[in-house]
Design brief:
heterodimer, A: Rossmann fold, 8 strands, B: 3 helices, elongated, ATP binding (chain A), cell division (chain A)
Amino acid sequence: MARIIVVTSGKGGVGKTTTSAAIAMGLAKRGHKTAVIDFDVGLRNLDLIMGCERRVVYDLVNVINNEATLNQALIKDKRCDQLYILPASQTRDKDALSTEGVGKILEGLSKDFKYIVCDSPAGIERGATLAMYFADDAFVVTNPEVSSVRDSDRMLGILSSKSRRAEKGEEPIKEYLLLSRYSPDRVKLGEMLSVEDVQEILSLHLLGVIPESKSVLNASNSGTPVILDEQSDAGQAYADIVARYLGEDKPHRFIEEEKKGLFGKLFGGK
Amino acid sequence: MSLLDYFRSSKPNTASLAKERLQILVAHERASRNQPSYLPQLQQELLAVIRKYINVGQDAITVNFEQDGNQETLELNIVLPDEK
């Protein structure tokens, strides 16, 4: 049986797709057969972030409507043979998704995959609620910013009441906090909510902090999941997150301001 | 107070303001999230009944639902108008 992870946030633009791509690649690179599914029907972008936009033939809705098989729609990643991408449909509207259809797809994938990462769209419409409905684990991506924190809390409410596990009275979805776009220097100046602040408000288990990083835009520009940029802080942060999720004990990084030596001060940034 | 502190204190700490606002908001939204869905209708119907006898305003009734462990409390608060 596969473990189903939903990457969710409520608010848009906080880094769900970046996180989905990075986490899926990270799990696959560690030898776990992983599928990553784009649930943003009508506004698909995971294919672009993964760099396989020109290889999309069939999509999620085609499979639901029996117009293609799962194997026809799954795109095998060229960098890692354990990773497959299932793109969203770009032309149909979001009502094309049904609970039975999504359930059938996840059931089919579960036979063959170890992890299924569901990239949720923003909002609380059908795509978002279906992405989380079947989940075992939820990665709640949050920016240290008031509207993002509020929306994350709203998503936690939905996770605990409207998921399959909640409806069946099973063990609840495991929820994890991923704090992204974090700037330790701004936190120090009192301009940004700290990790502790966000954790205190949401009372969530912290899986990792992803620092605000230029490498994220560079990665999406080139269609490479940022976790493959092993030199970058964001890439390392995601590698840590994958390791922690798999049960490894990794101390948290990127929470404190980086101490720059004289050289760093003179020649600046990364 | 040192000179450095003087310059620091001139900058408002917006992060603590954000935290305070969020804590209040999130607590409020969580409380209403756990309320049974019949609550708004119950409030409306109670108001209609009371208005048969006493002339009270729209906001004269507050209905609160609280859950504390196994115990559920429904609190009804009616504010009567001042005697003329």
